[in-house]
Inverse folding.
């Protein structure tokens, strides 16, 4: 194998992997370096070696040339598999790749990742403030230590009274007592077990896996060390650290308000000892501020104006007419993940993991904030399709299955790839659900004041001159409304004829037409709350028998609590993106009929398994149980895809129209 490590480190790794023999070619500078390990069972004759290649002949006297000893051959094959697995595990740990696990023979990918990370993390030169260049490792370390020590050194008077005069107290005495109480062993154990298995929490090099496996041994001493943690002798015990490093301030573009902002920042810095990093700050103006006025304000504050392509918290701070161009950086980021030379080393199964864990997850945060144009969603899907079939996101090739089929669940014959349009709408349905569930939040109050001041989100109108944010929320409402219904408690908030409140009816509404002259408006008017019953005679005079039976099935509660909205498709009544995505896929008509070959396999999976167990594994198989499992899967499949038509499985386990399977005769 190729390596730039020295012999001492390689010998340590070799012994940990139980190899007994070795041959090395030492690296020269940043190039070359080879290592070869083998067991005692093999005979290795090194013919020649150079900086880039080792030529040798490997033989094993224990194995016959005619491969007649099957036991020895199987033992060597098993030993080889174990060695390859250990090598891949070792490379996976060193690569620090968290989205892909070992076990799928991606050693080449992990090794390439190690090399790339090693090159990327090197600091070859460091330019100081006076312009001098530092190249030696000791000079660079010394300069970094001095720089950050001065940056994070204490400052300010520490007088908090001036800063806290305008801050309202929200922490009660009970809450404060809970925050400053001593840390218990169970809390320490919970925090330790939340560490990543292969991440080193301390410079000792022990990963979280070590503490998880040997907690009974190291746990008591570790808890004692944490409880006695102090920054310095005589300091109070350290149990909590709070950080807040971002702030958005809104002011008018004039000297008076800017001077007030500067004074407030100065008071805060003197009280806390913290100072504002103006190099990472920026000023953004509205469109009606002239350029001369902008330069004047920026010069007074000492803060530069934000560029047009600047981003805040991962999103563009401003955009023009083209929303797709504003999010081109997401396309570039996705291409960098899929187009790297390392991705070509992945197996097909690992490509699927890369797509689902990395590529499809990249735009999730941005999708939760704004509705993406269809053009941008199609571009994302195109990158993923090309990468799946060819390994290159920008190279078109033959696609052997449609994208809609690949987006189906694996149970329905697809690969569970994500449809970005449906997922975008499902994320905005969650934002709409939060507006309903938390109407008193700051975000909900602002949106209500702008778009529906005299109504609520469920009855808000589209309006004119829509903003991008409001249009996005309306798209999410189309998904949310498909599963939103009322839970009847006192019945005073729900309109009997127009609202969605009957669980078993299509659309959760009353299907009967409203008779003329009917004065019933709210649901509580047809309830006998004192007896926890519905007024059946009144219901039958208002609606059809089907609607009446559906309403009578709803329990009546004797309570003064208001009716609540819930999500019908969740057992707890809460909206989730997972369930919303399923609803969005249904509305987009992505669940199509599965090919007949996939249907037959879905039905006969248990039959084939039972046949193989009986014929090849010599197992006792219960035919009745096998057929029952096959029929159960068939029923579940048809419930998922009602449009699909499948062959019927008969009592003998055969499909209608087909011949019975006859086992082949066994020959001695």
């Amino acid at each position: 194998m190729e390596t730039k490590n020295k012999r001492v480190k390689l010998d340590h790794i070799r012994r940990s992997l139980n190899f007994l023999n070795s041959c090395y070619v030492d690296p020269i500078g940043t190039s070359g370096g080879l290592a070869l390990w083998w067991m005692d069972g093999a005979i290795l004759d090194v013919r020649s070696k150079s900086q880039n290649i080792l030529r040798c002949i490997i033989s094993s006297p224990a194995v016959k040339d005619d491969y007649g000893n099957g036991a020895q051959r199987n033992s060597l094959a098993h030993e080889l598999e174990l060695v390859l697995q250990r090598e891949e595990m070792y490379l996976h740990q060193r690569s620090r790749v968290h989205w892909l696990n070992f076990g799928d023979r991606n050693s080449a990918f992990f090794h390439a990742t190690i090399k790339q990370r090693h090159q990327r993390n090197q600091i070859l030169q460091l330019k100081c403030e006076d312009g001098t260049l530092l190249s030696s490792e000791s000079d660079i370390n010394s300069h970094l230590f001095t720089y950050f020590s001065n940056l994070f050194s204490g400052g300010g008077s520490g007088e908090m009274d001036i800063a806290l005069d305008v801050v309202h107290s929200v922490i009660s005495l009970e809450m404060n007592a809970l925050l400053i109480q001593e840390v218990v062993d169970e809390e320490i154990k919970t925090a330790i077990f939340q560490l990543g298995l292969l991440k080193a929490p301390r410079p000792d090099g022990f990963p979280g896996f070590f503490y998880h496996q040997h907690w009974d041994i190291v746990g008591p001493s570790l808890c004692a060390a944490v409880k006695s943690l102090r920054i310095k002798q005589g300091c109070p015990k350290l149990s909590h650290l709070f950080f807040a490093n971002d702030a958005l301030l809104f002011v008018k573009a004039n000297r008076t308000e800017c001077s007030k902002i500067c004074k407030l920042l100065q008071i805060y810095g003197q009280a806390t000892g913290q100072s504002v990093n103006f190099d990472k700050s920026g000023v953004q103006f509205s469109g009606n501020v002239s350029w001369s006025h902008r330069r004047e304000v920026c010069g007074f504050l000492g803060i530069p104006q934000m560029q047009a392509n600047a981003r805040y918290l991962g999103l563009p701070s401003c955009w023009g007419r083209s929303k797709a161009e504003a999010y081109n950086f997401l396309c570039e980021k996705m291409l960098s993940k899929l187009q790297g030379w390392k991705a070509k080393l992945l197996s097909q199964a690992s490509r699927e993991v890369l797509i689902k864990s990395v590529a499809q997850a990249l735009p999730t945060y941005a999708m939760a904030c704004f509705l993406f144009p269809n053009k941008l969603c199609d571009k994302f899907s195109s990158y993923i399709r090309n990468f799946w079939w060819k390994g290159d996101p920008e190279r078109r090739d033959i696609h052997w299955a449609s994208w809609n089929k690949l987006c189906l669940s694996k149970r329905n014959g697809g690969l569970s790839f994500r449809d970005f349009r449906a997922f975008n709408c499902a994320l905005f349905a969650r934002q709409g659900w939060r507006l309903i569930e938390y109407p008193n939040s700051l975000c909900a109050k602002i949106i209500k004041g702008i778009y529906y001041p005299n109504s609520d989100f469920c009855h808000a109108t589209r309006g004119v001159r829509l903003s991008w944010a409001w249009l996005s929320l309306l798209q999410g409402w189309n998904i949310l409304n498909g599963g939103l219904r009322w839970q009847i408690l006192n019945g005073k908030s729900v309109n009997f004829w127009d609202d969605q409140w009957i669980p078993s009816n299509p659309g959760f509404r009353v299907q009967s037409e409203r008779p003329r002259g009917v004065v019933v408006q709210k649901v509580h008017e047809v309830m006998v709350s004192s007896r926890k019953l519905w007024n059946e005679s009144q219901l039958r005079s208002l609606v059809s028998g089907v609607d009446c039976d559906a309403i009578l099935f709803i329990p009546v509660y004797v309570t003064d609590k208001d009716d609540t909205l819930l999500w019908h498709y969740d057992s707890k009544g809460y909206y989730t993106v997972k369930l919303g995505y399923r609803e969005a896929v249904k509305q987009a008509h992505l669940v199509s009929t599965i090919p007949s070959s996939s249907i037959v396999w879905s039905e006969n999976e248990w039959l084939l398994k039972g046949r193989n167990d009986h014929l090849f594994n010599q197992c006792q198989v219960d035919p009745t149980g096998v057929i029952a499992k096959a029929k159960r899967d068939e029923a579940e499949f048809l419930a998922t895809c009602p449009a699909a038509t499948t062959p019927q499985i008969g009592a003998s386990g055969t499909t209608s129209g087909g011949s019975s399977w006859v086992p082949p005769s066994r020959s001695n």
